[in-house]
Recover the amino acids of this structure.
């Protein structure tokens, strides 16, 4: 494992060199081994018949020795003596290679016999030469005869052992030649195995190098697909260039994750703040609305009138009772509908009640006309928006008109996506500057005279988020026309 | 998941590489060893001995000599010396004298010689002694030579034993008079004469009439021809034929079979070759006398070892013959088979 780490921590260039070197060394070692074995086999084949060759040399040398001896004994020639001594010296050298131990191996034993017979021969030959020098013919003739006999034995021995060795050597030669064929097959096999091994080694080692890169690219692809926060960092297995890149990659991944987390927190905070602001605004609006509605709270009147209506019923004063009931309805509406939107039909009913009350009060002086698109009766509108307008028309429009001539018209009609509510009178009209002041919200309504036009305007502004839904038109001595345009959005109808 | 699969693949590949590597290395070493061993086998399997003795037989092809040499060789190797049969496995067939000369020239530590009475042999024994090589004669002695010891067989006893067998055969034939032919070996010197005399001595007065013929056994082919000639020259086939030589015994047995005379004559043989033992088993040969080869071998090797160790040795060792007939042949057959 430590070795694996050592390899993993190497630089890529060194890794590649190592792969190349290892495979090359294996191939080279196999080649050297095969070369060495082939050489060894060839050397063995070459040496097979060397024993035959040396025996033949021995035999040749013996013949030279004997011819030297014969020549010297015949003529006492110095050349022959030289030949004899040279051969004798050579023979002594050659004899050293022969076995001199008693063994149960027939060839070795024959070698020993040859060696000893050669020694006897040399000894006898030396004695013959000495006798020749002493001119003792009988002795050197006898010695020479003995030498000749020994030479004959020797030649027979050499010939026999040569034959025996030739037979063995031929068997060896055949075996070696066969083995050479095995060597060829074996070499091919070893070479094939080494090649396969090299290929596998290269696959393993290059895989070790490229695997981290593949993993890195896969991770990068994973990140590029989105949601990097779900991507796990890569394990660093090496300390090479890829390892460093992987480290940097992991750090980058960690920074991206951190950045995303921070942005998310920021967004959540912002959205919470926005929500809070909106809530505050809503509360403010509610507060303002409640404040304005509290101004027109008619509780005490409603309670009082309820009692009056019951009294009138008991006394049989039906008109009084009806009058008081209408008043009660008027104020009940106020109590009930202060904080919610109502149907347009309910608003119209309130106006009807209000006109009835006034007509009783002023003995039918006010002419009230309605021009209503029945399809718009269910449109939802903020409560108490028509009655103040009618009240205003009565108070400021037709108050100075001759009794019985004052006329108020309520029109409800459709105009595009808007539901238009128009209250018009035939009164004295309103000055342009007053209209301007009302529209610019400068003129404050009188606190003691019920719900004023300004209050209606403010409420409409709040409800419809400052849309321009309110319009006042007036002509001198021709009357005033106030129009509210209610946008018919989803939920209004 | 992908990574772990990669790791498994890498591990598997690495294992394959390792296994291939180990197999290759093992194969290489096995192959190297095979090449190295080639041609060395012959030279490796041999033992060394401190002493070398030469065995010189009268006839290196004779079964008797080979049987004795085999026993001598085995006993010698058990006792720290090696015996070679000089002249064997050579391309030239040498005479006994040449073989003695070879043994002397090759400086052996001792010679075991099947002796004879010739002058030449006596001189060669003297030459060997002069070169410091002790000579022990076996089977036949060489009188007047400087041989150190003689491991001999009691031929007189052998003759008496033949006589006893003749008496037994006579008894089987209601004590009818027996005509006996003794085939003597031309080269065997006085050994056969002693045997002949002992038989003669034993037979006298027992209704046994002896005749003898000489057979030439000097070469492998003459024996059979001579036996055939002798048998052809006879007017009447003898009741008993006594053979004093292994080759003569086998030749007579073969002639009797060839001439369809089985049952008409009784053969008393010599030596325990496989052919002779088979013939005894079949009843074609009545009995044979065999040498106690292991005893002879022991005496020869011991005599030389004793002389080499102490410089002295007993001049005469005696050994007896054993009788093999149908009654005791089962004791010899298995051994024969083992020796094979």
């Amino acid at each position: 494992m430590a070795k694996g780490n050592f390899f993993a921590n190497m630089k890529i260039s060194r890794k590649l060199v190592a792969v190349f070197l290892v495979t090359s060394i294996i191939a080279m070692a196999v080649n050297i081994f095969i070369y060495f074995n082939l050489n060894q086999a060839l050397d063995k084949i070459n040496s097979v018949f060397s024993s035959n060759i040396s025996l033949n040399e021995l035999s040749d040398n013996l013949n030279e020795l004997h011819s030297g001896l014969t020549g010297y004994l015949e003529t006492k020639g110095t050349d022959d003596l030289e030949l004899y001594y040279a051969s004798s010296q050579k023979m002594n050298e050659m004899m050293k290679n022969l076995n001199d131990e008693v063994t149960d191996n027939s060839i070795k034993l024959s070698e020993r016999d040859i060696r000893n017979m050669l020694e006897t021969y040399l000894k006898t030959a030396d004695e013959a030469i000495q006798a020749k020098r002493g001119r003792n013919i009988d002795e050197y003739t006898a010695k020479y005869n003995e030498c000749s006999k020994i030479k004959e034995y020797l030649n027979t021995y050499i010939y026999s052992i040569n034959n025996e060795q030739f037979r063995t050597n031929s068997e060896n030669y055949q075996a070696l030649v066969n083995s050479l064929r095995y060597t060829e097959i074996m070499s091919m096999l070893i070479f094939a195995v080494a090649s396969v091994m090299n290929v596998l080694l290269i696959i393993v080692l290059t895989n070790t190098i490229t695997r981290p890169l593949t993993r890195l690219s896969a991770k990068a692809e994973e990140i590029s697909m989105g949601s990097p926060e779900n991507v796990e960092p890569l394990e660093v297995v090496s300390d090479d260039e890829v390892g460093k890149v992987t480290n940097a990659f992991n750090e980058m991944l960690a920074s991206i994750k951190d950045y995303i987390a921070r942005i998310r927190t920021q967004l959540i905070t912002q959205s919470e703040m926005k929500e809070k602001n909106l809530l505050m605004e809503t509360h403010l609006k509610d507060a303002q609305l409640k404040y304005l509605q509290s101004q027109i709270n008619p509780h005490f009147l409603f309670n009082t009138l309820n009692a009056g209506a019951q009294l009138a019923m008991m006394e049989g004063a039906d008109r009084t009772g009806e009058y008081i009931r209408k008043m009660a309805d008027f104020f009940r509406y106020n109590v009930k509908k202060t904080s919610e939107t109502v149907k347009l039909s309910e608003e119209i009913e309130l106006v009807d009640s209000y006109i009835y009350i006034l007509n009783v009060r002023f003995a039918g002086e006010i002419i009230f006309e309605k021009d209503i698109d029945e399809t718009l009766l269910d449109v939802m509108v903020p409560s108490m928006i028509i009655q103040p307008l009618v009240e205003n028309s009565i108070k400021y429009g037709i108050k100075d008109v001759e009794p019985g001539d004052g006329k108020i018209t309520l029109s409800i009609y459709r105009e595009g996506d808007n539901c238009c509510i128009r209250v018009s009178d035939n009164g004295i009209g309103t000055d342009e500057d007053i209209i301007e002041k009302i529209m610019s919200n400068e003129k404050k309504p009188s606190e003691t005279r019920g719900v004023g036009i300004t209050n209606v305007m403010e409420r409409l502004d709040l409800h419809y988020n400052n849309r321009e839904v309110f319009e006042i038109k007036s002509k001198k001595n021709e009357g005033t026309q106030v129009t509210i345009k209610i946008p018919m959005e989803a939920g209004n109808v | 998941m992908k990574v772990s699969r990669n790791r498994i693949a890498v591990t598997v590949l690495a294992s394959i590489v390792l296994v291939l590597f180990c197999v290759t290395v093992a194969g290489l070493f096995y192959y190297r060893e095979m090449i190295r061993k080639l041609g060395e086998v012959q030279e490796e399997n041999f033992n060394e001995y401190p002493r070398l003795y030469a065995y010189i037989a009268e006839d290196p092809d004779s079964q008797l000599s080979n049987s004795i040499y085999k026993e001598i060789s085995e006993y010698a190797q058990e006792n720290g010396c090696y015996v070679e049969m000089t002249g064997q496995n050579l391309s030239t067939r040498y005479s006994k004298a040449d073989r003695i000369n070879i043994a002397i020239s090759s400086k052996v530590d001792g010679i075991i010689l099947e002796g004879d009475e010739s002058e030449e042999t006596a001189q060669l024994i003297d030459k060997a002694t002069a070169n410091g090589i002790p000579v022990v004669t076996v089977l036949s002695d060489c009188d007047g030579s400087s041989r150190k010891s003689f491991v001999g067989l009691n031929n007189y006893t052998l003759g008496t034993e033949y006589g006893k067998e003749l008496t037994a055969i006579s008894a089987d034939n209601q004590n009818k008079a027996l005509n006996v032919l003794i085939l003597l070996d031309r080269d065997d010197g006085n050994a056969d004469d002693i045997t002949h005399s002992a038989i003669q001595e034993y037979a006298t007065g027992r209704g046994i009439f002896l005749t003898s013929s000489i057979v030439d056994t000097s070469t492998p082919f003459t024996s059979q021809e001579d036996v055939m000639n002798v048998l052809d020259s006879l007017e009447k086939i003898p009741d008993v034929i006594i053979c004093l030589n292994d080759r003569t015994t086998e030749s007579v047995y073969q002639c009797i079979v060839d001439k369809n005379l089985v049952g008409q004559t009784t053969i008393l043989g010599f030596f325990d070759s496989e052919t002779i033992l088979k013939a005894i088993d079949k009843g074609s040969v009545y009995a044979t006398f065999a040498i106690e080869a292991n005893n002879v071998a022991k005496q020869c090797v011991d005599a030389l070892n004793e002389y080499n160790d102490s410089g002295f040795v007993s001049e005469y060792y005696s050994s007896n013959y054993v009788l093999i007939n149908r009654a005791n042949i089962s004791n010899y057959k298995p051994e024969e088979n083992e020796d094979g």
Remarks:
- Residues 7 and 104 of chain A are 61 Å apart (CA to CA).
- Chain A touches chain B through 55 residues (CB under 8 Å).
- The longest helix of chain A spans residues 137-224.
